[in-house]
Design goal:
heterodimer; A: globular; B: about 110 residues; mainly beta
Chain lengths: ~120, ~110
């Protein structure tokens, strides 16, 4: 079946610009996570959605970062006034969201480069 | 603060057994997961421990000691395709917040 998909796969933008990264989770998965990963490091938690609501956004680094999931399926991570330090691979993961369903299914990521 | 520690690199030969350790200090703990990530690929789930003890899944086993804030991943009968990075991750808040370790890069030599 279809896994988690993310678009675009690569995004190059200039410092100060606005970007949107999209995640399509596995159908029926109510839990959705955003992470970012820098080279040689582990994924860094950004935000967690259960359904349409952001249940935990404690990982968002500052108010330039925002994410939505308006219909409880597709999610968009939005970054305003991008900075060179935002360059990383942004990973999305989904899981069934039910008790005991602890496995997260990751998408291939979006590689963001801010020049 | 929250921190997970893993060895940065491990090298072993085909057919051998290797253990990758993970120690953690987090504000909450519900379980410890392990993920494998090949270069350029997405992390893929390997195992999860919520209770103390050993969980076995094929060639891979994972162990947890909650009292010691410690776990490990055991890989047996190593194959070349096992060369990858391995991450432990603590479920910090039930189903919500996962903290990943820095990763251990495993190189399997012929």
């Amino acid at each position: 079946g279809a896994g988690v998909s993310q678009t675009p796969s690569n995004k190059v933008t200039e410092k100060g610009k606005y970007v949107e990264l999209r995640c399509d989770p596995i159908s029926g998965h109510t839990a959705l996570y955003w992470y970012r990963q820098s080279l040689g490091q582990g994924p860094e938690f950004l935000i967690y959605f259960q359904g349409t609501g952001a249940a935990d956004d404690s990982g968002l680094p500052n108010d330039r970062f925002f994410a939505v999931r308006p219909e409880g399926s597709v999610s968009t991570l939005k970054i305003q006034r991008t900075e060179r330090g935002d360059s990383a691979v942004y990973l999305c993961a989904s899981s069934p969201g039910t008790q005991g369903a602890y496995e997260q299914y990751f998408g291939p990521g979006t590689r963001l480069t801010v020049t | 603060g929250q921190s997970l520690e893993q060895p940065s690199e491990v090298t072993a030969v085909e057919g051998a057994i290797v253990q990758i350790n993970c120690t953690y200090q987090t504000s909450g703990f519900y379980g410890l997961s392990w993920y494998q990530q090949h270069d350029g690929g997405a992390p893929t789930f390997l195992s999860y421990n919520a209770l103390d003890g050993l969980e076995e899944t094929g060639r891979f086993s994972s162990f947890l000691s909650r009292s010691d804030s410690y776990g490990y991943l055991l890989l047996q009968e190593l194959q070349m395709k096992d060369s990858a990075s391995y991450f432990c991750a603590v479920e910090n808040n039930y189903g919500q917040n996962f903290v990943f370790g820095p990763g251990t890069r495993l190189s399997v030599l012929p």
